[in-house]
């Protein structure tokens, strides 16, 4: 049996039935599996449990639907919620803000149908790259450790992982996390000060700090101006392929997502990777990729 095509059939069925009642038992029966076996196979291919996938796709479509539907309650009812409050709770948990606020920066294009064979070009180990959240992030100060690298001949793909390893082994990360006034111990990987002619840029491993004046000499300081971001979460990956999954997600968002998204890169703002507790797991590691965006004119 070709499991990929079986799960693709489930994904298509889910997409067609997002406004209806979807049950794992029905999907498993159509696939010809026991419920438990189907649950495990789906998670292996999608990188998340089946009902989590259903919830995220509903929220992605609801976010777009809000662009042309005046009442939030009508969107809630259309996607199977019994009340405005239950929809708001689920939407906030998934998208990071209440629907009324999110509507102001709702996606400019409808969510694209997910095709596993297409995604395999970017993430060969499996896993689905979901539609991004659109987030307004305020200005922040980042203090960190830096190297100057270049994208020429993919040199950055070699030097940045080596830089992370060096910082974790030589005590630099401990010093970074001991800085005064740290807002969060989430780690940023930020590309700044690009040279368009040579492809060179500064890569900073940093943390957010409340007061840049309190940061001692020897650390890189960068003011990250507030902007609207498209936020992607990489598919879960084992530690030995985590870096490859991150690179595959970058390739996907530039080669596949941007051309159909209705957005373009916001000039003058940095893109970055955010590493929180999900990146420190023993298995199923993930990080977030934040891309500054503006809607196309």
Fold topology:
Elements: H1 3-16, H2 24-31, H3 35-46, H4 50-65, H5 72-78, H6 84-95, H7 99-102, H8 116-119, E1 133-137, E2 140-150, H9 155-169, H10 172-177, E3 182-192, E4 200-209, E5 220-224, E6 227-233, H11 242-261, E7 263-265, E8 272-275, E9 288-295
Antiparallel strand pairs: 1-6, 2-4, 2-5, 3-4, 3-8, 6-9, 7-9, 8-9
Helix pairs in contact: 2-3, 4-6, 5-6
What's the structural domain tally? Answer: 2
Gyration radius, to the nearest Å? 21 Å
**What are the segments in which pLDDT stays under 50 over at least 5 consecutive residues?**
none
Q: For the record, what is the CATH homologous superfamily label of the largest domain?
A: Regulatory factor, effector binding domain
Mind telling me which CATH architecture of the largest domain this is? Alpha-Beta Barrel
CATH class of the largest domain, named Alpha Beta
CATH topology of the largest domain: Multidrug-efflux Transporter 1 Regulator Bmrr, Chain A
Q: What percent strand?
A: 15-25%
Shape: globular
Count of helices? 11
Question: What kind of sheet is the major sheet?
Answer: 9 strands, antiparallel
Q: What's the count of strands?
A: 9
Q: Give the ordered list of helices and strands.
A: HHHHHHHHEEHHEEEEHEEE
Q: Which bin fits the share of residues in helices?
A: 25-40%
Mean pLDDT: 92
Strand pairing plus helix content: what structural class?
alpha+beta
């Amino acid at each position: 049996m070709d499991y990929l095509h079986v799960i693709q059939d489930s994904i298509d069925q889910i997409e067609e039935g997002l406004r209806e009642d979807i049950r794992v038992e029905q999907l498993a029966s159509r696939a010809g599996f026991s419920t438990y076996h189907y649950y495990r196979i789906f998670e292996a291919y999608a990188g998340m449990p089946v009902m989590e996938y259903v919830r995220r796709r509903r929220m992605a479509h609801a976010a777009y639907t809000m662009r042309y539907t005046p009442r939030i309650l009508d969107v809630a009812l259309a996607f199977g919620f019994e009340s405005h409050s239950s929809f708001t709770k689920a939407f906030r948990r998934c998208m990071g803000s209440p629907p009324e606020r999110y509507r102001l920066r709702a996606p400019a294009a409808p969510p694209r149908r997910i095709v596993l064979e297409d995604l395999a070009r970017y993430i060969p180990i499996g896993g689905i790259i979901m539609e991004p959240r659109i987030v307004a992030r305020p200005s922040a100060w980042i203090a960190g450790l830096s190297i100057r690298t270049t994208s020429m001949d993919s040199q950055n793909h070699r030097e940045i992982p080596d830089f992370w390893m060096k910082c974790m082994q030589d005590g630099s990360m401990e010093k970074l996390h001991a800085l005064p006034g740290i807002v969060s111990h989430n780690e940023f990987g930020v590309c700044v000060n690009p040279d368009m002619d040579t492809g060179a840029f500064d890569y900073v491993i940093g943390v957010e700090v409340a007061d840049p004046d309190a940061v001692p000499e020897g650390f890189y300081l960068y003011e990250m101006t507030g902007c609207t971001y498209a936020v992607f979460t990489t598919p879960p990956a084992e530690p030995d392929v985590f870096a490859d999954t991150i690179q595959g997600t970058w390739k996907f968002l530039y080669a596949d997502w941007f051309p159909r998204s209705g957005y373009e890169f916001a000039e003058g703002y940095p893109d970055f990777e955010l590493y929180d507790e999900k990146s420190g797991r023993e298995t199923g590691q993930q990080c977030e990729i934040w891309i500054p965006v503006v809607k196309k004119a």
